Amino acid sequence: MKIIAPIALGLFLAAAAHAGESKKELGVARIQGTAAGSTLSGTARFEDVKGGLKMTVTLTGVPGAAHALHIHEFGDCADSGKAAGSHYNPKGAPHGHALKDAGKAHPGDLGNVSPKDGSVSFEAVLPKASLQGKNPVAGRSIVLHEKEDDFSQPVGNAGGRIACGVIVIAGS
Fold first, then answer.
1. Average pLDDT, integer, range 77-87
2. Is residue 172 within 8 Å of residue 25, measured between CB atoms?
3. Which pLDDT belongs to residue 133?
4. What is the pLDDT of residues 13-35, one digit of tens each?
5. Counting Cβ atoms within 10 Å, is residue 75 exposed (0-12), middle (13-18) or buried (19+)?
6. Domains (ranges, CATH) in the chain?
7. CA separation (Å) from 151 to 30, 115, 126, 155?
8. Residue 4: phi, psi to the nearest 5?
9. Is 152 exposed, middle or buried, given 0-12, 13-18 or 19+ CB atoms closer than 10 A?
């Protein structure tokens, strides 16, 4: 009996400590080309970290040179990505580059990505954004544009939407 009580107490304390841990939520978007027959595809993963929202984007079948990458306001990729709406801009900030100037640009402005042999790997922490907290991206879309973002007003002249994925909560 003397051995069982300390073991039981240890198990109870371990269970209590584990119950206090919170599971980290993750977001994911399955990105698909918007044109019929497009081979462009990939994934975007999102995780709240200290300093903002960590994004990891992997794409294949990406044509040509640089392309703008943005988070758009609606979680809908219908109508060749047009249903995703405008850039995600919760505070009405001007267009810019959120990864380089978070104080001035809105969190939908991710800058440009350039494919190497048709593939893109992109990882960054987006300040002033989160998965579900302040300035949430869950339920919105991530969009790859046909051209690069020239960072002009109001939206950067990036052209049409060649790929789109809805950002959903995937669990932990």
1. 95
2. yes
3. 83
4. 444 444 444 567 899 999 999 99
5. buried
6. 24-171 (2.60.40.200)
7. 26, 19, 17, 7
8. -65, -40
9. exposed
